[in-house]
Amino acid sequence: MTVFKDNTALILIDIQNDFCPGGALEVGEGNEIVEVANKLQEKFRVKIATQDWHPPNHTSFASNHLDKLPFSTTEMFYGTQVLWPDHCIQGKKGAEFHPKLITKSTDLIIRKGFRTEIDSYSAFFDNDHKTSTGLGGYLKARGINSIYLCGLALDFCVYFSAIDGVNLDLEVNVIKDACRAIDLDGSLEMAINDMKNKGVNLITSNDL
Ligand code: VGL
Ligand code: ZN
Known about the structure:
- It is a single chain.
- By secondary structure, this protein is an alpha/beta fold.
- The protein has helices at residues 33-41, 135-141, 154-167, 187-197, and strands at residues 8-13, 46-52, 73-76, 79-82, 108-112, 146-152, 171-180, 201-203.
- A six-stranded parallel sheet has the order 5-2-1-6-7-8. Strands 3-4 form a two-stranded antiparallel sheet.
- The protein starts with 7 loop residues before the first strand and ends in a 5-residue tail after the last strand.
- Zinc ion binds at residues 52, 54, 60, 84, 87-88, 113.
């Protein structure tokens, strides 16, 4: 088996209980990627995971707005924001990684979405596209110029991470069969097209 060198990282996006069946913001078949994600980890020396990590009063929760239903939208200071069911609340079971996901050999865990007033889909920046999680600097400091993304959800956090990765001049690969999507109002098709247009490589785990 070929193992990637130190300039390449596998990034496991939000493989957490709340995005799996039975969770607060379940993604269809979200749990089915865990086995693939674990197998993929054997091929990478550098492994990074992200964790959606919201305070209970987070403004991305519909419950924190008057007369707003989950999956509707609102205007925030940084643009249009989808309002979600309460999910991935700091310290709660739903915010924990899927119990079968291997995390003992993860180099870095990036938490995001912990600022009450701003959501964060991307592993690199909050939804204002300005506030950094620090991941870009971390990769740069370690000489990592190529990333492979997998996880949940393909059309939100994986997608925004991929686009930001390209904008940071990284080579970005998305391992499609190790992702599942929410697919809200055509968001999956839009995300796939945009990733293709912007130079993200869409691959499958068999290609590795
Ligand atoms: C996500 C919606 C809200 C994701 C996180 O991980 O894709 N989606 N928070
Ligand atoms: Zn979230």
